[in-house]
Amino acid sequence: MPSIIIKNKQNMTKIELSDIYYIKSHPTKPHYLQVVADSGTYDYLQKLSQLEHLHSTMLVRCHRNCLVNVSKIREIQLKDKQILLGNDGQYQVTFSRRRYHQLLKTWLK
């Protein structure tokens, strides 16, 4: 099973891609990503484009600053341009017009 390893000063955490809901640019830390998974939220020093290239079968770019796990998408709301992730739709991410068709094509496969 593909996974990523997140390192910080205290520990290293291995997260399976199937447990990740979405990955987006960190709102306050430049050059960091925010990984939201079943086990929590993590800060990850990596480029979004590199993750997209390595894991293009599971992670799809929905916006210029965000990747979503296609298997976790529950619903796509066209009017609000929102993607609901998780069993209950507890996570919401916006998508851009530019990325919509590729996102829909990958999700419906």
TrEMBL record:
PROSITE patterns membership: HTH_LYTTR (PS50930)
- Entry keyword set: DNA-binding
Keyword Protease among UniProt keywords: no
Give start-end of the signal peptide: none
A GO molecular function assigned to this protein is: DNA binding
Q: Which domain of life does this protein belong to?
A: Bacteria
Read off the Gene3D superfamilies from this record: LytTr DNA-binding domain
Q: Does the keyword DNA-binding apply?
A: yes
Q: Name one Pfam family in it.
A: LytTR
Q: Where is the HTH LytTR-type domain?
A: 4-109
State what protein this is by name.
LytTR family transcriptional regulator DNA-binding domain-containing protein
- What species was this sequence derived from? Streptococcus pacificus
Specify the taxonomic lineage. Bacteria, Bacillati, Bacillota, Bacilli, Lactobacillales
